[in-house]
TrEMBL record, chain A:
<keyword id="KW-0762">Sugar transport</keyword>
<dbReference type="InterPro" id="IPR025997">
    <property type="entry name" value="SBP_2_dom"/>
</dbReference>
<feature type="signal peptide">
    <location>
        <begin position="1"/>
        <end position="20"/>
    </location>
</feature>
<dbReference type="GO" id="GO:0030288">
    <property type="term" value="C:outer membrane-bounded periplasmic space"/>
</dbReference>
<comment type="similarity">
    <text>Belongs to the bacterial solute-binding protein 2 family.</text>
</comment>
<feature type="domain" description="Periplasmic binding protein">
    <location>
        <begin position="48"/>
        <end position="291"/>
    </location>
</feature>
<keyword id="KW-0732">Signal</keyword>
<dbReference type="InterPro" id="IPR028082">
    <property type="entry name" value="Peripla_BP_I"/>
</dbReference>
<dbReference type="Pfam" id="PF13407">
    <property type="entry name" value="Peripla_BP_4"/>
</dbReference>
UniProtKB/TrEMBL annotation, chain B:
<feature type="transmembrane region" description="Helical">
    <location>
        <begin position="67"/>
        <end position="86"/>
    </location>
</feature>
<feature type="transmembrane region" description="Helical">
    <location>
        <begin position="117"/>
        <end position="137"/>
    </location>
</feature>
<keyword id="KW-0762">Sugar transport</keyword>
<dbReference type="GO" id="GO:0022857">
    <property type="term" value="F:transmembrane transporter activity"/>
</dbReference>
<keyword id="KW-0812">Transmembrane</keyword>
<keyword id="KW-0997">Cell inner membrane</keyword>
<protein>
    <recommendedName>
        <fullName>Xylose transport system permease protein XylH</fullName>
    </recommendedName>
</protein>
<keyword id="KW-1003">Cell membrane</keyword>
<feature type="transmembrane region" description="Helical">
    <location>
        <begin position="328"/>
        <end position="348"/>
    </location>
</feature>
Amino acid sequence: MIRNRRISIPFALTASAVLALTACSSEGGRQEQEAGGGGAADTPRLTIAMVTHAAPGDTFWDLVRSGAEAAAAKDNVELVYSSDPEAGNQANLVQNAVDQDVDGIAVTLAKPDALESVVGRAADAGIPVVGLNAGIDHWEDMGLLEYFGTDEHLAGTAFGERLNEVDAQKALCVIHEQGHVALETRCSSLAEEFDGESETLYVDGQNMPDVRSSITSKLQEDSEIDYVATLGAPFAMTAIDSVAEAGSEAAVATFDTNEELVGAIQSGDVEWAVDQQPYLQGYLAVDGLWLYSTNGNVSGGGTEPVLTGPSFVDQDNIDDVAAYAEKGTR
Amino acid sequence: MTRTLTAPEAAPGDGPGQPPTQVARRSLLRLFLARPEVGSLLGAVAVFIVFYAVAEPFRQAASFSTVLYASSTIGIMAVAVALLMIGGEFDLSAGVAVITSALTAAMFAFQLSLNVWVGVGMALLFSLSVGFANGWLLIRTRIPSFLVTLSTFLMLQGLNVAMTKLITGGVATDSISDMDGFASARLVFASSFQVGGFTVRVTVLWWLLFVAVATWVLLRTRIGNWIYAVGGSADSARAVGVPVHKVKIGLFMTVGFAAWFSGMHLLFAFNTVQSGEGVGNELLYIMAAVIGGCLLTGGYGTAVGAAIGAFIYGMTKQGIVYAGWDNNWLMFFVGAMLLLATLINAWVRRQTSRR
């Protein structure tokens, strides 16, 4: 049962995209289903490009994209999604969107300096640009229309506060990509707020056995660690194994969620996840551009970011989230 | 030393490669020192001593078990990659091929609701055919292995993500941990057991077994002779009747087999696999083989050496954590340790060849 339902999601998305591409009517069929029965917008068809710094095959970014696709289906928008973790390549993809003269661009500013000039060119071409996920300190200066995402600093701080609440003594913050600004900010903000001691550990996120043995090693080395904080859901799942292997008493908590993590929170293996709602980020970015183009709306008035987190997923609210996670939207 | 029959003279630019006829005349000690893996063995001892001295937790049995596990996951692949390098080729697709195999098994079993062993079998078939395709393309097109396997690497990377998304609707596989056959497969690929307070991971045993088999094949069988011959000089080997094409394709398929095995370990140890993983690991496998004494030019090296190379990497990577050194410097320390091991390796070989 579950399996069938899951296959139908990509199928529905593809089908609606195909329908949309062939410029069918904007009502009825799967498109309507996608929009939750409310019917798709009858506004003129727009083309919106979303360019992120996602590495391929990452569960987090898949949620962002799903959200963007859902909004696109509802808003009669053709979504052109592309991504590249290298800042220079990402800038080229944005330029590519400018060249295509799209009706709007949603971009992540993980490395703002590299994107500054190309975002300026989009503005010169009269294309509205919104930011999402990364770049909360830069979007306004760079002239972006609005921003949808979390403040990594806020997220880290919230995590630190929570650690104080549960009376943690020593936390291990596991960074799965060395030199990633947002990840470093999470750990440093956590350390700032947390009254206990905290330490960071770098692991190779492309290599799960390395993640597992490195966390195990650290826990063996330092038996005082009582909380392991991972910065992505798949790493939390691995940290559970490491804790068991090292014979440590440490609890695991994480940033970000995915479908598998839901089960781990239900069973108590992971205590909580700080959720930045990636689906919402993708959805709002596309919807924001649509609203601006069709109705002149600007969320946050162009001066305040629209925050999608941090919210906590823990045993108190996990059952509400679980149903959505199963559909691949949380 | 059956390989003395066919191992070619090293070209002057090859550095430490030894004319094997001299090796045969040496005393036992020199014979030992001249073996390709001895330099890396001394390197391993040096790295061990460093961490034994500076990292207190490194001295405990539990830590050693973790180090061995980290080494084995690199080492299983390194053995096959070393064989391929001795045969004169290398494989850049080996890192993502591991993920491809894990994804194939997981999706096959999950989507068709089959016993996971069926998925495991399909993954084996698929991995072997990827290896076959690599070797076949190399031979038919005469494109260097660098380019053939680079292309495979990129194609597999795209295939991993695209197929996973197409089939599962997400970019990670669904958890198969509650399916039939999972428990027994886990026992084979990802279990661990206690031996007197020391945790032995099954991957370590498999690793040792693979090293032993590869060593036996290299030193005691005709195929081993062929591998050295093909890597030394494919033309001369062909001239004396070695089936060069079959050997090369077989070596690529061996890498495919190891990728399958490593992929199965990932799947059954971690239940789900993210489709974007694995990129960059191919260099770790090659690195382990090179530290272990394999020449990048082929025709020289051993499986034991590759195992020691993987062990050096495992000790270094985990040793730095045990030592509590500043994390920002982690990769620098790893690089420096590897350089040290390689230098000791090269120095030992120079010493033995000078006498």
